[in-house]
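Quick one, probably user error.
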């Protein structure tokens, strides 16, 4: 009987040990899945849900009456830099594209914009890509930035050098070198044409030349482009997503970091914009040109370029605008969450192997000792 009892005890001990191992495995799987679910999905909803559309004055006086203007909800993002087949590790490429796709789709679902503008540098390897690689990159772009039919997606450096959309003038600033090249001459000709139409829209009694052709809205446009207008440096920029302090005083090179002074003056003179939005620097900045033309540099949308990507939300009417910034999850916080989960996993394994005392047992023993005293 004693032998039979010993056998049952060993069997029960084995079953108990097996159940503990299975329970540990379930705990490990649950923690891993919870960390993945939070860091790769839920964190985007938690962070972006805190963003709100800015309020803008939507009423205008029409004689003695007040008239309500329609408000356009627009998102502005820049410098996605999708990697190609030449530069970057495949894992880095996969990670960054997953982040941007999840962030963009979450923003579309939560914020419901009517139009999205991407201010250039969509791809990182456009200069070197083969025809097939370029086609693959474009296909990936359409997958990552897919959108419902009622949402319009506009890329500044697209099929047309210059276009007019709602209250926005989109300029391919790469074509503003001023060296008389074919696309540069075409861009300047189109700009002067739009400048003429804008001037006509501002006149109360337009002349005979203004009557011909399609009339533009009688409002100052918002200029959208990739390169910033000319400025010496980012020395006057501030904020948590501005360039690092050590880089702000570095002088900008015309036609490389910013537009040339001449091209910038032409754009401001031709278009007389009420606002300028640009990208390229990967950092935020606000610059005042002349007396009242504000330029905002939109930071990069990619975690590959900065730890705290963001995009701009704009509420726009024919005469007014209001902007706010929506930050995406911070890279270091995501990594800290994964690190915390990994430490917790290792602790569970060490406790299971009895290489580390259980926190519960450790606390219970301390409580017993304190009661004895």
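Nope, works fine. Designed sequence:
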């Amino acid at each position: 009987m004693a032998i039979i009892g010993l056998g049952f005890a060993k069997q029960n001990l084995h079953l108990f040990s097996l159940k503990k191992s299975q329970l540990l495995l379930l705990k490990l799987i649950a923690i891993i899945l919870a960390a993945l679910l939070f860091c790769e999905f839920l964190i985007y909803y938690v962070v972006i849900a805190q963003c709100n559309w800015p309020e803008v004055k939507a009423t205008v006086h029409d004689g003695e009456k007040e008239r309500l203007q329609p408000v356009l909800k627009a998102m502005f993002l820049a410098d996605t830099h999708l990697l190609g087949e030449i530069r970057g590790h495949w894992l880095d490429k996969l990670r960054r594209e997953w982040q941007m796709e999840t962030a963009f789709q979450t923003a579309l679902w939560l914020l419901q914009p009517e139009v999205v503008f991407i201010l250039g540098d969509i791809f990182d390897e456009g200069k070197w890509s083969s025809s097939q690689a370029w086609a693959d990159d474009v296909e990936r772009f359409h997958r990552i930035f897919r959108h419902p039919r009622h949402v319009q997606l506009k890329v500044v450096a697209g099929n047309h050098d210059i276009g007019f959309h709602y209250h926005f003038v989109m300029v391919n600033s790469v074509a503003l070198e001023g060296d008389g090249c074919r696309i540069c001459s075409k861009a300047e000709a189109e700009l002067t044409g739009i400048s003429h139409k804008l001037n006509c829209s501002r006149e109360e009694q337009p002349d005979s030349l203004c009557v011909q052709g399609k009339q533009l809205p009688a409002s100052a446009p918002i200029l959208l482009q990739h390169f910033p207008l000319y400025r010496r440096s980012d020395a006057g920029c501030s904020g948590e997503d501005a360039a690092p302090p050590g880089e702000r005083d570095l002088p900008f090179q015309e036609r490389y970091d910013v537009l040339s002074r001449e091209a910038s003056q032409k754009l401001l003179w031709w278009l007389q914009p009420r606002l300028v939005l640009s990208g390229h620097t990967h950092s935020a900045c606000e610059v005042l040109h002349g007396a009242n033309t504000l330029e905002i540099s939109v930071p990069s949308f990619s975690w590959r370029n900065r730890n705290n990507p963001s995009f701009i939300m704009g509420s726009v009417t024919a005469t007014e605008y209001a902007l706010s910034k929506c930050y995406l999850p911070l890279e270091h916080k995501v990594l800290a969450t994964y690190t915390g989960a990994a430490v917790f996993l290792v602790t569970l394994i060490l406790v299971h192997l009895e290489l580390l005392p259980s926190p519960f047992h450790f606390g219970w023993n301390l409580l017993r000792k304190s009661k004895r005293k």
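The helical segments are 2-48, 90-111, 131-144, 182-202, 208-211, 261-271, 331-352, 359-372.
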